[in-house]
Amino acid sequence: MELGIKGKRALITGGSGGMGKEVARLLIDEGAIPFLSDIDAEELDSAAAEIHGLGGHMAADLTDTGDIAKLADRMAQEGGCDILVHAAGVTGAKGDPLEMTDDDWREAWEIDFMSAVRLSRALVPHMVDKGWGRVVFVTSENAVQPYADEAVYNAAKAALLNFTKCVSMPYAPKGVLFNTVSPAFIETPMTDGMMDKRAEELGVSRDEAIESFLKEERPFLTLGRRGRVEEVAPVIALLCSDRASFTVGSAYRVDGGSVGTMNI
After folding, report:
1. Are 197 and 116 in a shared domain?
2. Is-contact 220 185, C-beta < 8 A?
3. Does 197 lie in the same domain as 87?
4. Does the pLDDT at position 263 exceed 70?
5. Is 92 within a domain?
6. Per-residue b/e over 4-22, b at no fewer than 16 CB within 10 Å?
């Protein structure tokens, strides 16, 4: 499918992760020019070395307004930003919601929510000037189906979902379309770490930990397995395109059925 984004410049945060890299590859296939950013410079260099056709890469801490300003300046030097795919994030502290400290809440809020607000402030005005832009935030199933031990993550992702709907209203008429994609239990280093920790606690293998997690913690995940980044990235790429020109303020779930409610 021709997505109509040849020559468009895209900033992908969380660019050294599996999701970011896969989105970058798809956008390159469509003639776009992705630029990767992430917090760890070495991991980012390694990711950039894997992908041919990038427009560049730059390490940045998205909780630092100075770093965001530098990133926006770099994008301007490269020709501007037409597409923002914000995939960076953390699950944050886990446990009893009332035992989470202010710092626990603040960490998730700053990384998972405020980074999106600040990136939008820095990059969207340029899209408005061009009369065309796409912003895709990667949220989570947790935005609409919270889990008690992941309260700080739930709250930040729910806020991001609400922000997307709010900001889409004034900016869609200016040509900038905001949407979200909500994955669930995708096969990434993050969920590998979660499952390795669970395996150690239970004294089982990773595969056994995944099986018990699905049974006990994700009973609605109909497909009964972790998803793959290759199954999420195409949805993100579509929302970056001219093909999605009538899709605004929407939340696309790529969750294997994990959310047990109607998508309304």
Report:
1. no
2. no
3. no
4. no
5. yes
6. ebeebbbbbbbbbbbbbbb
